[in-house]
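Q&A log
Question type: sequence-to-structure
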Amino acid sequence: MTGPSENHHQNIKEDQLVYAKTLEKFLYAGMIFIVVSFAVYIFQIYPAGLPPEKSIEYLTMRASEYAKFTEASVGWAWLHQLDKSDVISFSSIVFIGMISFITYLRVFSLYVLKKNTTFAILALCQLLIFIISALGLYAAH
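Response status: OK
Response body:
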């Protein structure tokens, strides 16, 4: 006899389970990353570009104003500043934003392995949209 959760999983398609399991793993990793990187920032384990005590001054600013006043990097230029604790903390938020891409990449590979061409093409289109968005190739001005 199977338990209720086992019966439930029998009705779920493999791609849905792969997506959900991948999402779950990366969300837990992302939560740990956020907590650890925020602790690194607050306890100033590494020097910060913007010290924690000054960050409150910038909370109500728009992103463009914040970048101007703090001389923060825009786009992907922040990658060159990963030696600063505030940027490490920011990178944890970027990681959370990349989880959808990672899960689609995992499901895309499953569709390719299963030779499910239609869904592989749809997943690939979604991946391309993520990449175009991340690169800012279709940004509104």
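Response note: The radius of gyration is 20 Å.
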